[in-house]
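User: tokens in, sequence out, please.
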């Protein structure tokens, strides 16, 4: 029985669909494989929702797939894609013994230093899984920020650059995580309130919603 990782990947090009599988390498090595240039790769990169180090990884994967097939929709019996939510998949991960994987990069750090792009527009960074974590550098005044927590429930806030806050229905939030966690506390009382706002939220750019997870910072004029 081989040790390895079970993982859950998401992709903003496939809303509501998650890739759940296993790897004998690290989750970020598997992520790099999934995001490698390929004719059939989705137009936006995969992101790691969570992963767990386990013994008998292939057996744990089969158990996960069995549970997901019973309780969610498997898109193709030969593929690892399921129509479900990260919260539901994590509930199944909680049933499996192992050690939660922690990324080597600090995606929770909202003040982390990042490299700036030579392009002035706000766009998803497809070369790295890390990105801008400073709202003053990532968002424009009046930009819409969205968080969804399943079952069609979503909050759309407005970024106020003067306050450096996200405004939503009379409340101000100093971070994306605070915005997402409050949304969960209101609309999803059945789940943990902890949230990684940069990974879970989206921002509106040119009329389209893109993930805030791997944004380039805006360039100053």
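Assistant: Sequence out:
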């Amino acid at each position: 029985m081989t040790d390895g990782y079970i993982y859950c990947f998401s992709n903003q090009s496939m809303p509501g669909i998650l890739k759940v599988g296993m790897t004998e390498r690290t989750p970020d090595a598997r992520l790099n494989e999934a995001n490698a240039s390929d004719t059939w790769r989705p137009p936006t990169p995969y992101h790691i929702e969570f992963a767990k180090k386990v013994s008998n990884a292939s057996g744990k994967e089969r158990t996960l797939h069995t549970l997901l097939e019973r309780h969610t929709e498997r898109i193709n019996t030969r593929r690892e894609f399921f129509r479900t939510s990260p919260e539901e998949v994590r509930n199944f991960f909680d049933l499996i013994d192992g050690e939660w994987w922690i990324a080597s990069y600090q995606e929770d750090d909202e003040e982390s230093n990042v490299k700036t792009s030579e392009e002035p527009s706000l766009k998803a960074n497809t070369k790295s899984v890390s990105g801008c974590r400073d709202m003053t550098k990532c968002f424009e005044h009046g930009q819409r920020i969205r968080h969804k927590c399943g079952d069609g429930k979503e909050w759309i806030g407005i970024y106020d650059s003067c306050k450096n806050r996200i405004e939503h229905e009379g409340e101000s939030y100093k971070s994306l995580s605070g915005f997402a966690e409050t949304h969960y506390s209101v609309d999803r009382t059945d789940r943990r309130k902890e949230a990684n706002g940069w990974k879970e939220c989206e921002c509106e750019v040119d009329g389209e919603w893109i993930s805030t997870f791997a944004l380039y910072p805006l360039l100053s004029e």
